[in-house]
Every structure is written in C-alpha cells, then in structure tokens.
Amino acid sequence: RPETPVPPGDVAAQLAVPGTDGNVFDPATLRGKPALVVFWRPGCPHCLAELPDAARAAAERGVPAIAVQVAGSPDAGRAVLDKLGWTGPALVDDGRLRTNLKIKAVPLTLVLRPDGTARKAMVGRQSYDAMHSALR
Questions:
Q1: DSSP 75-106
Q2: Nearest residue to 40 (alpha-carbon basis) of 120, 125, 118, 108
Q3: 114 contacts 32 by C-beta, under 8 angstroms
Q4: Which residue, among 73, 74, 75, 56, has the nearest Cα to 65 in the 3D structure?
Q5: For the packed helices 74-84 and 45-61, what is the interaxial angle rounded to 10 degrees?
Q6: What phi and psi values does residue 79 have, to the nearest 5 degrees?
Q7: 65, 74, 84, 93: which could join 97 in a potential S-S bond, CB 3.0 to 4.6 Å?
C-alpha cells in the first residue's frame, strides 16, 4: 500500500473540536508525547475493526489514542464507541478537519510527533502490528 502524504503543520492544534461529551478538546494535553489519531465514521466496518486495535497499540506504547468522527451523528458515534469500549478522547469534526486535512477516506490514522505535527499517515484498515510499530 503506498504511503499517504502527511498533512502539513500542527495537526494536534487543529483538534480543538467538541468531544462527544460536548466539551471542546484541549490539544495542549497532547504536547510532549506522540499520539495516535484515528479519523472514522459510524457504519464503516474497517473503522470499527481498527479502533480497538488502535486503542490497544497506543496503550501499550503509553501514548494517547484519539478517535475523531468525521461523519454521522454524535449520538451514533458515542453509541458505537461505548459498544467498542473506547476510553480515549472521542471528538466530532464539524467539517473543518475533513476539509483542512483533506480527508478523502476513512479510516485515516495519523501518528503525531510530540510537537503535534504528523509523522505518518495511513489510509484504510491498519493492523494492530502496523500501528504498534508506527508508534515506535
């Protein structure tokens, strides 16, 4: 699978969008450590298969995993994440992230550097092993 170009600039700073809990996420909580960000939508089977693996890979690497829903209702997203046992931040894009990061397909998984810039971008269902090694 060809490498996907990473979005330019400080991606973490752009994550100041509402969470499924209604509170706006504070990107400063990501500073100083890598992070795994999965852009997804309810009803995407590849997304649903990847999210638990993303959570496990990030937990084993000791880094945060953030789920960013780019389509569908926040209630539908929350229900899916609850069913999957997702415990990390769950954000809901209002359309700006999809536009600014040029997201054409999901799942889109980004590995962020401690400064918030993207080190790696992966489109399509990623295996646990692929995400675990990408967080090295």
A1: HHHHHHHHHHT--S-EEE--SHHHHHTT--SS
A2: 108
A3: yes
A4: 56
A5: 60
A6: -60, -45
A7: 93
Q: Please name which of 32, 58, 42 lies closest in space to residue 111, comparing C-alpha atoms.
A: 58
The answer to whether 77 touches 58, Cβ cutoff 8 Å, is no
Phi then psi dihedrals of residue 122, to 5 deg: -130, 125
Q: Is 18 left (phi over 0), alpha (psi -120 to 50) or beta?
A: beta
Residue 11 has, within 13 A of its CA and on its CB side, a CA count of 28
Residue-wise pLDDT tens digits, 26-56? 999 999 999 999 999 999 999 999 999 999 9
* CA proximity to 117, closest of 43, 11, 31, 4: 11
77 HSE (CA, 13 A, CB side): 23
